[in-house]
Amino acid sequence: MSIDIDAFAHAIESDLTSNPPTYNESPYYSKVQLTAKPDSSAQIFLENDEFTKPYLSKNIYHGSGQTKIQAWALASCALTYAKEKTPKEAAEAIDAIFKAIDAPVNDIALISGVFVSRVHEITDNIWLAPISESPSFQIKAAVAEYNDFLKDYMLGRGASPFFDMGFDAPKAVLWRKRSMPFGFNVTNGGAADAGAEQLFALSHLLTLVGPCSPSIRQYVTELDESMPFKRYLSQTTYSRAEETKTNSITEIHDEDIEEYRTIVNDYFRLSSKVKMFISTPLVRLNLAIKHISEVEKAIDLGIAMESLFLSDSDKNSPIALPLRLRGAWLLGETQADRDILFKKFQKLYDLRSSAVHSGSLGKNNPKSPNSDLLAGGVELCVSAIRKIIKNGEVPEWTNLLLGGRY
Prior knowledge:
Blueprint: H1 5-16, E1 23-28, E2 31-36, H2 41-48, E3 59-62, E4 65-68, H3 71-84, H4 87-99, E5 102-112, E6 114-115, E7 120-123, E8 126-130, H5 137-153, E9 172-183, H6 196-205, E10 215-223, E11 236-237, E12 250-251, H7 254-268, H8 272-290, H9 294-309, H10 320-331, H11 335-358, H12 370-391, H13 397-401
Parallel strand pairs: 6-12
Antiparallel strand pairs: 1-2, 3-4, 3-9, 5-9, 5-10, 7-8, 8-9, 10-11
Helix pairs in contact: 1-2, 1-3, 1-4, 2-3, 3-4, 8-9, 8-12, 9-11, 9-12, 10-11, 11-12
């Protein structure tokens, strides 16, 4: 069974041409949304149609959400869609809702700390774009409206319709497309955050480009714009803003995107063991870049180095020497390289120890400023993580220290 498409389309067309109107108009961001009145021909049709009557007042499931379906909502959806398309297309779209078992959705992460000038497809079904190019019409419209407000009343300020203004406002979106259980004949799968962890991991991988300090300010899962019933359903959302705010914005250029694509594709080939191994170093490296305080930067950079080079060590084992040796052997190709790296890791670890034990970095050497040492440490951690991702395995430290290849 299905809806009588022609009869339903005729009822929809009658509403659109009725005088007086059998619907109300209300703004939906920069679009118009129609809401059926009780005397709407489309609503009356749905209330009396033998196919649709059994579904009314039943729940339609969408991810972790569920919405009780009413005739006015279906009729309102049909009228709004018909105004944008045609009455027949609207009738067919409503019919498809009753038969659906899944639907396309977008997992969208709003990111601060980075900016891109255009849409980039990173890999299959994953994109990075300016926030103004979000796949969500609500986000795009809200950004445009809010920016217009700032132009008139708050010139010179950064903008976000979601968060604090300034550097921490999201400037980019990272999103993925997937399918989600949807319809009357599916159960509530509790999968609101099914795509969240992957996007958080991909956001942290952006740290290796630049390097920079991306931060997810909000995460949302919502039906794709191709679903006409979207605006009448409660949104499926999962918000988890990262704790530390971003204090700088890094523009990601086309050549950076090529590097990022390579990193992401290599990352997807990693085992869960290797992904777990690089998780803490990535998070701590991102935090180290975010910090304005050099003391805090040294502490988080130290944690990143320890989790990279000493994660298998006993808590009572010595730290400084193994860290320097492992770092030098992982990144150095020659004895001369390793000698230089050994000394760099020693200086970095000394900064970390001073920050932890005294709350300061000690005397600043004009020939080798602490800021330069810390920036160099960030680059070393980036190189180490990228090498591990590219090689696809956790280093076998004993073999490496005995002169083995990695």
